[in-house]
Amino acid sequence: MAGVGLRGVRKSYGAVEVIKGIDLEIAHGEFCVFVGPSGCGKSTLLRMISGLEPITGGDIVIEGEIVNNIAAADRGLAMVFQSYALYPHMTVRQNLSFGLENVGTAKGDIAAKVDAVSKMLQINELLDRRPKDLSGGQRQRVAIGRAVVREPRVFLFDEPLSNLDAELRVDMRGEIGALHKRLGNTMIYVTHDQVEAMTMADKIAVLRSGELEQFGTPLELFNNPTNTFVAGFIGSPKMNFIKGHVDHADRAMLVLATGEKVALPATGFDQKPGQNVTLGIRPNDLQPAPSASLSMVVRSVEQLGTDSYLYGGLEDGTAITIHSPGQTQVTPGEKIHVGAAAASMHLFDTESGNTLRIS
Amino acid sequence: MAGVGLRGVRKSYGAVEVIKGIDLEIAHGEFCVFVGPSGCGKSTLLRMISGLEPITGGDIVIEGEIVNNIAAADRGLAMVFQSYALYPHMTVRQNLSFGLENVGTAKGDIAAKVDAVSKMLQINELLDRRPKDLSGGQRQRVAIGRAVVREPRVFLFDEPLSNLDAELRVDMRGEIGALHKRLGNTMIYVTHDQVEAMTMADKIAVLRSGELEQFGTPLELFNNPTNTFVAGFIGSPKMNFIKGHVDHADRAMLVLATGEKVALPATGFDQKPGQNVTLGIRPNDLQPAPSASLSMVVRSVEQLGTDSYLYGGLEDGTAITIHSPGQTQVTPGEKIHVGAAAASMHLFDTESGNTLRIS
Amino acid sequence: QEIRFMCSGDGVECEVAMRIFERYEAANPGVDVILDKVPYQGLLDTLPIQLAGDTGPDLAFVTDLGGLNPYYLDLAPYVDRKYWEDSYGGTLDWYRVGDDDDGIYGLHTGLTITGAYINRTLFDQAGVAVPSPDADWDTWAAVSREVAEKTGTPFPMAMDRSGHRIAGPAIAYGAKIFDEDGEPILVDEGFKGFVEKFVEWNNDGTMAKDVWGGKGGTAYQDGSKEFINGDLVYYFAGSWQVANFEQQIGDLFDWEVVGSPCGAGGCTGMPGGAGIVGFEQTDHPEIVAELIDLLASEESYAEYSASARTIPTHAAVAAKGVNYEGATPLAAAALNGWAAQVSKLEPIAFAYQGNPNNRAMFNITVQRVTQAVVGELSVDEAMDRMSEDLAAALAESN
Amino acid sequence: MRVVWLFLMPNVLLFFTFAFVPIFLNFLYAFTSGDQIMLGDRPYAGAANFESLSRCRDYLDPNTCERDIFWRALFNTTWFVALQVGFMVGFSLLTAIVLNRDIRARGFFRSVFFFPVMLSPVVVALIWKWILLRNGLLNAWLIGLGFEGVNWMLESSWAFAWSVFLSVWAHMGFYTLILLAGLQAIPRDVYEAALMDRASAWRTFRRITLPLLAPTMLVVLVLALIKGVQTFDEVYAFTGGGPGSATTLIIQYIYETGFAGSPRLFGLAAAASIILAVVLVVLTAAQFWANRRNIDG
Amino acid sequence: MGKIASFLTATRGKNGRMDWTDWVSYGYLLMGVLVIFGPVLWLLMSSFKDEAEIQRFPPRFLPYTQETIEVEGYDTPLALYDIVAGEFEGRRLAQIRRVGLVAQMVDPNEPDVRLKVDIADREAIESVGLATENYTELFEKFSFLKFFWNSTFITVVATAITLMVNSMAAFGLSKYQFRGRNVMLMIVVGSLMVPQTVVLVPLFIVTKELGMLNSLWGVIIPAAATPTGVFLLRQYMLTIPDEILDAARMDKASEWKIFWRIILPLSVPAIAVLAILSVIWRWNDFLWPLIVLSENENFTLQLALNSFQGEMTTKWSNLLAMTVLTLLPIACVFFFLQKYIATGIASTGGK
Ligand SMILES: Nc1ncnc2c1ncn2[C@@H]1O[C@H](COP(=O)(O)OP(=O)(O)OP(=O)(O)O)[C@@H](O)[C@H]1O
Ligand SMILES: Nc1ncnc2c1ncn2[C@@H]1O[C@H](COP(=O)(O)OP(=O)(O)OP(=O)(O)O)[C@@H](O)[C@H]1O
Ligand SMILES: O=P(O)(O)OC[C@H](O)CO
Ligand SMILES: [Mg+2]
Ligand SMILES: [Mg+2]
């Protein structure tokens, strides 16, 4: 069972602590995605799991065995480096076959596997080039191929698709998914792409400056974020946060900083009268509605073709984004009224940022 | 007028022709985005404009002047490299100030500018680190900062945000947009991100294996793609393409390969009876409708939280993706009927791939 | 049995010796004499180390005659002592250390004598008479200057940069080299007297300063190039240059041996040369001894001298004179001219050459006199330094 | 990390046997006297050799020292190294940079600059002696141009200057080659970035090339210094240390005292070599220290 | 800022045009050819001069030989002269012999008439001619091929060992953090401090104790662990990004494999440099082989070369010819290896 466990794992560079004690159990065969802001420690964590980075504290467990003292080469993992780290002196083919040669795979098998993988990654025409003669995306695919071709018990991917175009990315997502199904092995995947995270993951781990914020299935995180950080991080564009307090008289009524009042759903939150709370509504859940209580001034409009986003602010300046399907006619400067269904609302304690939902 | 013009520009590496004659005029102050599949020549084109890559044929014109023989340093551009190319031996601060020092900016000004830029890029805490002590996204921001701090007449960005998380990416998009407004200079920007391309660009140039496919505003490209390639490339997920032919009897009726019939809009296309055509419908325009004529079997479902995508196929196997707002209840294996409004249809000649829309 | 013969020569010495050894091989099947021809530096610098390390050849051609004495094979048990004493009496001592040493160690194959050559053609062109054989240094200096002046020759005189070379003239000027007890002193009034002159000549252009002044340390430098090019009137070197001059001057001009000028101490040059010795560590002392003895026989020795163009030390051979094969008249005359100089050598010269510390003394001389020539030290200081250096060297040796 | 020792082992073994042990023996020699070659035959002398070498009335005037030549050699070597290392590093850097450019006939030019390194010291000295002799090529030239000839080898300062020149001439190619390899290791995209940053040639050199060349530069500086101090063969064959002792360098002193001299004063020579090694260690440590930032990349 | 196209960094005008930096570069290189290669060329020329011509003042660049002519009645060819003054001015005569200031000469066309000419009146007729005997003599004089083989064997084997052993050590010292690393490094650099000249005798003793005297191995082994090589390679390897090694580790490469397949290929420029240097060192080694090898059959070319330096005289003509001959192989090695120096990894496989 190639599950991966992190037990109180820590890492410091000199005085800088970049991983501050992380506990995480990734079950065998699970596809786990790490997300988090740039610099939060995702790559470091991957490198620690791989064995390339010595850990400062805690244990790393693979297949139930503590591997802290096992060399990277012997942990049976494969990794796609964020910086690719291709072998500059080898052709693409050699880059791909090196790992197989190391484990003594037969020549014929190597050729077959390299062939298959390079076709899957659409780099089969580049097999005799060296990395320096490749485009950024091509290099990235070689980096993926190098890991994939070895079919290890655990895969570590560090932003493997960041330099690919949308179409290729969709393809690759599919291929990696298929691979995961076929091999049934554990995959740990770092990405900044919401779509990748949401669609590929069995579980998502949200990290913030070296700490684990939440670990769960994509929809769990999306629907029940534990705090404003996760709520803001999962889903794009970001959830709108509006400050206010619970009406002293009516627990179900929220008084926003702008003075407007919003009705909360009757159940679901454990807010207390007078408590300072933050209301969270995703842009997709905010609809222009002439009769709605919130009024905003649109500052800018983004037209994606299929969708449009309106950026604006409430009266007190709180930034608000709303989503509008298709191509919108709204123009900057317009003042519109928006509203949301009570069911789509999230409520957080303003001080701690934690969700107020009863779980 | 720091417009940039490409006149029949070509580039070959030995026998491999990677840029096959590109003509393009980017007006002064325009924000132009290059998109295209991985390896199509975007970076090469940027490098040719910058002067780092000698051109094999054609002319590059900046401010009306042919700059083919002007050295990179003298073209007055700044570039964010896809590979970052940070100075490994310098701290972040030195990386940022090097360019300013080169042009003799006063010490105080340098400090102020570096300060401002690093704040904007949220790397102000890292100013005394060296690149090797930074995370991937932090490095990328330094690379951006190095170009931005110089405020040149033309900016070249090569996938500058690919390693940033969604939130930061939105921020950076905003910052670059603001910078563009403030400086009013020309920007050429390579990206794989649909959102970036659609939202930031004044004009988008779609490249395919060294050739320019279409050049126009984002919505132009989205609404009036000249061929299946552009149609497929712009917009994510990709447009669905369904093969068929125009009914011999009724020009307004399309007979799909599956035998199903679809009514075309009365005007807009110049299809001929019997012509082999490809119908294009974006996933967002396909709605589940029990009464609709197209029936598909759902193979997989992607839940993004705010949206869902259903992947499936028509009877003849043609892959179909449809978008469904919110979180869907459809499960793989289900058979559903889908339909689209005639207005949202695109029609292409199957042989040439060119659009049949009357322009 | 394999016998290794290490040799280095300026001419064909090694080959000629081998020719004679081959006869021994023919007579003694199973003996195989192998010639290891090495650079001269091999003999000088590395042979002693090899010997000290109990390796090295069975027999060798050597020039540091006394210095290697501890390693020599005493041939006395194998050879006819009387024949050797009679024939080589004068040089046997050079291979010995101390007065009570009566071993027979080496065969002095080629005697060298220091002394001068002149460019006879220049004298003729200048119309200046060649001084008589008993002329002194001052006379030669004056005459050389005159010839040089009249013929536009750059250098009147030159002397090889060597402690060995300057020793002869110094002795002729009264240097005693040793004190009454036979202990080396090197410096005395006589020695200093010549050095003063020598330094002066170097600085007034009489001597080609390039030779001594252009070098340092104990590096060797000769003036043969200048002489060969006709840029030098009077060249103080030694008998070994004959073959060289014969070959390279060829037809350019006439040259002659004039030997050493005279002084209060006589008209002596310095003897020297090389010999063949056997080494104690050999596995075949008998064969080694027989080989050397064969070469020492009057017949072989005469043949050797004639072929290798050396000046014989064998009394009988010397007395008969050598018929140098194939030599040009000039060269033959020169070689015989050198042979005639042997009788002029002073006992001090012999003693100096035979002293085991001679190399140290030569080196000290070169180094310090040069410093005086170039002005780093005054002559007095140089002399003081020489005495100190000598004392230090003597203290260290054994 | 045990495997690292497997990588080091062969080298360590060879080192121990053929560098360490001899150096240690040499150390022992320094405390013995006499002219015997084998250590066992030599009497113990305590620090006498060191005392003898260091006995001076006035350390600035070699004439007052017991071993005056040692001190002269020491002074000469100091000057020699200062000049030689400076010129050597300067010229080889310049040459490496030029040769690193995308020039035509690169291989040919590289070979040209490297050629002298292949020559034996004796031949190097011979060639230049021919050129510098009183009636050699250079003087013939000068006189042809209407100047007066100079007796280069007879004037102390000229002989010294030419010795420096000669050793730079002979060894420059060696360092050029090392620097060339170092320049090749600098990633090209960093230069491209500098170009886009409008760095002038000089600034690119100062701020990009030099710092990134630092590990190589350390090799060059350390080797140049050490080999500079150890200069011997070609200068010895060239001037023999003269005129007088003007170009006598420290290794010549050691060589003539211990190896080629008579009597062979191994003890004194060994003591001198230890003093030399100590000086070198100090100088090298200083270089490492000055370079410490860049040593480990 | 004008033509910034960086003299110090650029690699030829991007567009194939020569700009001033190219002119300066070529100027510098040509001067280099003059100063560096001129003397070498002269050496080459001199190796074709006969001994007398070598000793000649002032020296001449081209090798000249005196023209001779076969004259009836004389066994050996006679030297030809132009007569420039005196009675026979303008004639071309052959010299029979010279006695003092007068030469006996003969007109090749009338061999019977002897003429007396003042030696100042004649001028030798010389033409450029190569004294190839300098070379041919070498092959007659000693077993050149044997020496060549010995030198080659020593050079090749010692270089191979040096490269192997040094690069392994350099890898250890550059890519591993371990206790004692700095000590090891100091030892390496420290042993550079003592020149071989100084430790010849102790080294001889060690070599003798190991029974390697008079064997080529006695020359090969002691020289193999050059500290210079370790130091040089180590500093170069520092510039190889660690991330590539990490990638290899993830590819399950053993440390040996990493060394062999990653580090070595990426260090090719430095290894080429060391190979060149090692070849030169071993090929030109003189003093050490001289001590270790006393038997001729083990001699190297350098020892043979130096045997032209006798006690009192040096045969320059042969020595120079031999120098040129011994130079050729290493020059070839250099020419072959130098191109590897230019194969630096310009762009790494990373971002
Ligand atoms: N030296 C070379 N020799 C041959 N082909 C090359 C060389 N360098 C680049 N190419 C090819 O040129 C094409 C264009 O490369 P370029 O880097 O411009 O692509 P790109 O559009 O930037 O791709 P990406 O989005 O993956 O970065 C690629 O197919 C690449 O393989
Ligand atoms: N050697 C170091 N010394 C100090 N801090 C370091 C060092 N190396 C990395 N860091 C810091 O550790 C943090 C985590 O880095 P890591 O590369 O794991 O981030 P990441 O989550 O992968 O970010 P990104 O998404 O930008 O790649 C970063 O803030 C980085 O600046
Ligand atoms: O000073 P050197 O080297 O010429 O010594 C001369 C020899 O002793 C002559 O036999
Ligand atoms: Mg990262
Ligand atoms: Mg690219």
Automatic annotation (TrEMBL), chains A, B:
Limits of the ABC transporter domain? 4-234
Give the gene name. Answer: ugpC_3
State the InterPro entries in the record: AAA+_ATPase (IPR003593), ABC_transporter-like_ATP-bd (IPR003439), ABC_transporter-like_CS (IPR017871), ABC_transpr_MalK-like (IPR015855), ABC_transpr_MalK/UgpC-like (IPR047641), Mo/tungstate-bd_C_term_dom (IPR008995), NA-bd_OB-fold (IPR012340), OB_MalK-like (IPR040582)
Which Gene Ontology molecular function entries are recorded, alphabetically?
A: ATP binding
NCBIfam families recorded for this chain? PRK11650.1
Which named protein is this?
A: Sn-glycerol-3-phosphate ABC transporter ATP-binding protein UgpC
Pfam families named in the record:
ABC_tran, OB_MalK
Key words of the record: ATP-binding, Cell inner membrane, Cell membrane, Membrane, Nucleotide-binding, Transport
The taxonomic lineage of its organism, from the top, reads: Bacteria, Pseudomonadati, Pseudomonadota, Alphaproteobacteria, Rhodobacterales
TrEMBL record, chain D:
- Chief location: membrane
**Stated name of the protein:** Sugar ABC transporter permease
Q: Which organism is it from?
A: Celeribacter arenosi
List the PROSITE patterns hit by this protein, alphabetically: ABC_TM1
Top-level taxonomy: Bacteria, Pseudomonadati, Pseudomonadota, Alphaproteobacteria, Rhodobacterales
What keywords is this UniProt entry annotated with?
Answer: Cell membrane, Membrane, Transmembrane, Transmembrane helix, Transport
Superkingdom of origin: Bacteria
Q: Which residues form the ABC transmembrane type-1 domain?
A: 74-287
List locations, semicolon-separated.
Cell membrane
* Signal peptide per UniProt: none
Q: PANTHER family per the record?
A: ABC TRANSPORTER PERMEASE PROTEIN, INNER MEMBRANE ABC TRANSPORTER PERMEASE PROTEIN YCJO
TrEMBL record, chain E:
Question: Topology relative to the membrane, per the entry?
Answer: Multi-pass membrane protein
Q: Does the keyword RNA-binding apply?
A: no
Task: Name where it's found.
Answer: Cell membrane
User: Which domain of life does this protein belong to?
Assistant: Bacteria
The record's section on SUPFAM superfamilies has:
MetI-like (SSF161098)
Q: Where are the transmembrane segments?
A: 23-45, 147-171, 183-205, 217-237, 258-281, 316-337
Gene3D superfamilies, alphabetized: MetI-like
For the keyword Membrane, the answer is yes
Per its UniProt record, what InterPro entries does this chain match? MetI-like, MetI-like_sf
Q: Where is the ABC transmembrane type-1 domain?
A: 148-337
Q: In its UniProt entry, what is this protein called?
A: Carbohydrate ABC transporter permease
